[in-house]
Amino acid sequence: KAKAPMRNLIQNGSFVVKKVAVICCFFFITTLYQIFNQQKILKITTAGVLLHYDKSHGFFPVSVGAAMDKNVDLLSFDNDTDKSHQHVRRDKCFSWGDKSADKWWEMNPEYEITVENDNEFCFTVMQNDEKASFLKKLHTHQYNMTKCNKNDTYTKRMISSGWGADINHVAAGLLHALDTDRPFQIVQEDYWHYSALKPRWRNGKPPVCPSGDLFCYFLPIGVCNATTVDPLNTRPQGALLPWAREYATRPQQW
User: Confidence class of residue 183 from pLDDT cuts 50, 70 and 90?
Assistant: First the structure.
């Protein structure tokens, strides 16, 4: 009789353990499903590529940490998932120090850097067709010389605030100019404070580059000259703002 309570205790304990295991499995599976559903799965491959999971495209590279073979499909997988090798296509490559890379990327904003190693860096057309199309449209608009002749460039004065505010200020101008069919340009009254120290701390120190503006670091955003500063101060908003911001901050090679 003394063994009965002990047997019941063991049976009850075993039931509790099983119940907890089932609940844990349920939450684990639910969490995995939510992560896949939100397209946030990331993994590091044996080739050193950080991959992002997207339900439509599967895994695709976010950043690259190793040299890959050229001229192959964006991603190719072996059947053996444990020894899979991911290859990133390289559409256009430049060796470090090749200054022609800046001009090439200036004229081809629909490309993004997918490979960087000790010898070279390479570009590939963006996988997001909508984004690539928008950036090409914005570039075509900003590099249309016939619009320059109208002397109607939408011009904004560059601000020196926080980084996000400054770049959003430029991106908002690009979007407004595109919507109103005018070219856009930014002007600098004093040095941009990310290109030079603020006046009270400057003490005669020169800026990063002679112009002391946004273009010390980033590629040109258009070909039309600035005109009189427009009093209209557009607000940075809308779904296209991140793409316009990316267009304005494509870095120079240096």
Answer: very high
Does pTM surpass 0.70? no
**How does DSSP classify residue 81?**
G
- Is residue 54 within 8 Å of 39, Cβ to Cβ? yes
User: Please, which contacts does 140-145 make with residues 24 or more away whose CB atoms are closer than 8 Å?
Assistant: 141/177, 141/178, 141/181, 141/183, 142/174, 142/177, 142/183, 142/184, 142/221, 142/222, 142/223, 142/224, 143/107, 143/222, 143/223, 144/183, 145/223, 145/224
Q: pLDDT tens digits for 112-169?
A: 999 999 999 999 999 999 999 999 999 999 999 999 988 789 999 999 999 999 999 9
Ramachandran area for residue 167 (φ above 0: left; ψ -120 to 50: alpha; else beta) = alpha
